[in-house]
């Protein structure tokens, strides 16, 4: 085989192998639908709703921090929700709003919200969830709104939240929650 033929063969082999080594096209990853996990199965759901309400209200004023999930580190919206449910009700929820909105819990009409329900918003427009909070009653919800802010109590009937409102979920439903083995 001539030198020129060997060089061409080497180049062809390198191109072939490079094509095999390239990453596959990116897939659209859909969140896995899961059940909330009750870590304390003997918990009274009415009492748990009160505990969630008081724990959420007690965190008003905690600094916002993207990715934060404790009072010491600060909270983002899903970190706040996960912390409150785990701490006050013994329920492990998914960490992201995208996973929370598709979890196996009953959807709730906005006119039938109860304390402890999760409320979801598309703050960037469209129908993709980007924010969430915990409904505390009387048209109000607790949430960790944005960088530089703090956990706050807000009204659902504000035009901004009404425009962005997507859905609500009821996590505190006796008999419909997953149990830890």
UniProtKB/TrEMBL annotation:
- Know the name of this protein? NlpC/P60 domain-containing protein
What molecular function terms (GO) are annotated for this protein? cysteine-type peptidase activity
**The keyword Glycoprotein is assigned to this record:** no
The residue range of the signal peptide is: 1-23
InterPro entries to which the protein is assigned, alphabetical: NLP_P60_dom (IPR000064), Papain-like_cys_pep_sf (IPR038765), Peptidase_C40 (IPR051202)
Supply the alphabetized keyword list. Answer: Hydrolase, Protease, Signal, Thiol protease
Q: Boundaries of each NlpC/P60 domain copy?
A: 46-172
Q: According to the lineage, what is the superkingdom?
A: Bacteria
Q: Which family does it belong to?
A: Belongs to the peptidase C40 family.
Coiled-coil boundaries: none
Which SUPFAM superfamilies does this chain map to? Cysteine proteinases
Q: Which BP terms does GO give this entry?
A: proteolysis
Q: Does the keyword NAD apply?
A: no
């Amino acid at each position: 085989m001539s030198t020129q033929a060997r060089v061409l063969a080497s180049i062809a082999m390198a191109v072939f192998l490079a094509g095999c080594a390239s990453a596959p096209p990116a897939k659209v990853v859909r969140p896995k639908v899961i059940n909330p996990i009750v870590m304390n199965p003997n918990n009274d759901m009415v009492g748990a709703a009160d505990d969630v309400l008081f724990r959420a209200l007690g965190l008003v004023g905690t600094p916002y921090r993207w990715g934060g999930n404790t009072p010491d580190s600060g909270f983002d919206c899903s970190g706040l929700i996960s912390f409150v449910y785990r701490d006050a009700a013994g329920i492990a929820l998914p960490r992201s709003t995208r996973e929370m909105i598709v979890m196996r819990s009953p959807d709730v009409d906005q006119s039938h919200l109860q304390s402890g329900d999760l409320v979801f918003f598309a703050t960037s427009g469209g129908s993709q969830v980007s924010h969430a909070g915990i409904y505390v009653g009387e048209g109000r919800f607790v949430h960790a709104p944005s960088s530089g802010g703090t956990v706050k109590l807000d009204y659902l009937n504000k035009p901004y939240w009404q425009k962005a409102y997507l859905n609500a979920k009821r996590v505190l439903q006796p008999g419909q929650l997953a149990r830890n083995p």
